[in-house]
Every structure is written in C-alpha cells, then in structure tokens.
Amino acid sequence: MNTTGNQTESRAYRPKLALYHPNARGTGSAVRLELLPATDDSEGCIMLTIAGQSAVGDRRAPTPTYARFDWENKIVVKLGFTDLCQMLQVFRGECESIGDGQGLFHRAGCGQTRITLRHLVEPIVGYSLDLYRTLPGGQETSSRFFFSPAEALGLTEAVCGSMTVICFGIPMAQTASAERAESAAARRGKEAVDAAAA
C-alpha cells in the first residue's frame, strides 16, 4: 500500500499460483496453490489442489482445442507451517523425501490423505508430489504432479516469501489520515485527563 497525503493506492494481492502439465497421452496434471494468510483466529496455510488431465487437446488443429483438467475430482490438502517446512527441506536438498519416505498424513471429514514429495534423479531430474486419499468408505484415489528443478526453485522462493503471511498474517497499513485521526484522539484524551487532574 502506497500512501501519499490523504490518497491511498491499493496494490493487488494475488494469492494463487497454478502450473499445468498436460501431455499427449492424457496423463498430465495441474496444480494450484492458494495462500491463505493467518488471521486473529486461524493459522495461515497454503491450500494445494491437484487435478488429473481429462482431455488432450490439439493446438495445431484448424480449430485449436486445449488440454482440460478434471477439477471436479480434484484432491485438495491444507499445507500448514510444518508441512511447508518439510517440503522446503526436500526442495533445498536437505533430504530426499518428506516424512522419512513415509509422507505426511492428514485426516479430515473427507477421509485420510497421505502426501509424499520425493526428489528424483532417474529417469528425469525433478520432484514428484503425490496425494493419496482414502475415503471413509474405503475407496482410494490419487493424484501426482511433477515439478521440474526450475519450478521447484520458484516454488521454494514463493513459499519462503509467504511464510511471514502464513505465520503472522497481513500487516494492516494505516493511511496518513487515519494516523492523524488517531493522534488527534489521543491528544484529546490526554487533554481531558490533564483537565480532570487540574
């Protein structure tokens, strides 16, 4: 927020990031990350969503079509401070996988979800993020997203930059006029106290 005199210019806040990896076999996937800042009554987090590819698409056709993703059957998980720290350790090369290879386990009303993130070097270098969900009825579903080393680097920087907001929320900026009003109210209060004491 930029304050000039009584005018306040608000900057756009874009708390979402999406990466799409379609392929010609229709087995690609997409990932969305949404930053939810901490508030007075809740911790901040990043909501992670993975959806599998539902249509291949053909951009070279006379009427181009684009790959589509099955957002209706997506898997969504909430990544809190500790989850994100463990993921950052993998992206930074401090360990090869989260949870000592076992992954992270989350339980919610929609069932139990296991989150794995592994550094891969063969057949291709990168990071495999897998979500496995077991529904209350016992059915299982899974989704996978592969991060290239460049995407992992960018995501690492984005998550590191978001940690203050995840931990402490968005600082409230005061405008110059609000500061003046607050200062005037404090002065009036002090004057009233001084007058009562005299």
Main attributes of the structure:
disordered N terminus; 4-stranded antiparallel sheet; 3 helices; 11 strands; 198 residues; elongated; single chain; Transcriptional Co-activator pc4, Chain A; alpha+beta
Beta-strand fraction estimate: 35-45%
Structural class: alpha+beta
Number of strands: 11
Fourth CATH level, the homologous superfamily: Transcriptional Coactivator Pc4, Chain A
Topology-level CATH name: Transcriptional Co-activator pc4, Chain A
First and last CA, distance? 43 Å
CATH C-level category: Mainly Beta
The unreliable regions are 1-10
Structural commentary:
With 198 residues, the chain is α+β, with helices and mostly antiparallel strands. It has one domain: Roll (Transcriptional Co-activator pc4, Chain A). The chain has 3 helices and 11 strands. The strands form 3 sheets. Strands 3, 4, 5, 6 and 7 form a 5-stranded antiparallel β-sheet that branches. Strands 8-9-10-11 form a 4-stranded antiparallel β-sheet. Mean pLDDT is 84; it is low at 1-10.
